[in-house]
Fold:
Amino acid sequence: MIRFSALVGRELRLVWRQPGEAATAVLFFILAVILFPLGIGPEPALLARLAAGLLWVAALLAALLSLDRLFREDHEDGSLELLLLSPVAPELVVGAKSVAHWLTTGLPLIGAAPLIGALLDFDPTGGAALAAAMVLGTPTISLIGAMGAAMTLGARTSGVLLSLLVLPLLIPVLIFGAGAVQAALAGAAPRQPLLFLAALLAAAAVIAPWAAGVAVRQAMD
Structure:
């Protein structure tokens, strides 16, 4: 745990050296949400009905923006090879990068979602379900995204390949995340969709670091 905490601290320091990159996801999230009313119309009833899905789509796309850089910069300057030669297991390196990505991307999105939802006439009664769903869903996005970033490491068009690889795997997160909010807005308990999100997070926490660790080792060979 000490080594893992040190790796997370290293990743956070690297991110905060370029604070503009850390703010890119939130700014994209805000701009995307602002564009939706312009595209589908300003009718409050329509926006309120679509708000949950639109917020999740915007958050998912915003989280994908920084995934391409998760391993690329360390790979280019040789830091990744040094990390793999250290006593730390590659799975811990991947886990630390995933945690740092969530802290700098997913967590700000969770805080911004209820506030930005006001632009879509989002019903405040679904705020708790939205927060709970994003707390469970955004770490899954970071974990699966890290796996995709590792598998496309070294590719010339890694950004495009990463999106094509990761987006289909994240469809269940989008479905259950929006479903939890819709259930709360309909007056039902969002327990079942939240349990599915928790199961997806548990599966991603077990599989993604291992798969990404294997992919990183192969990319460095």
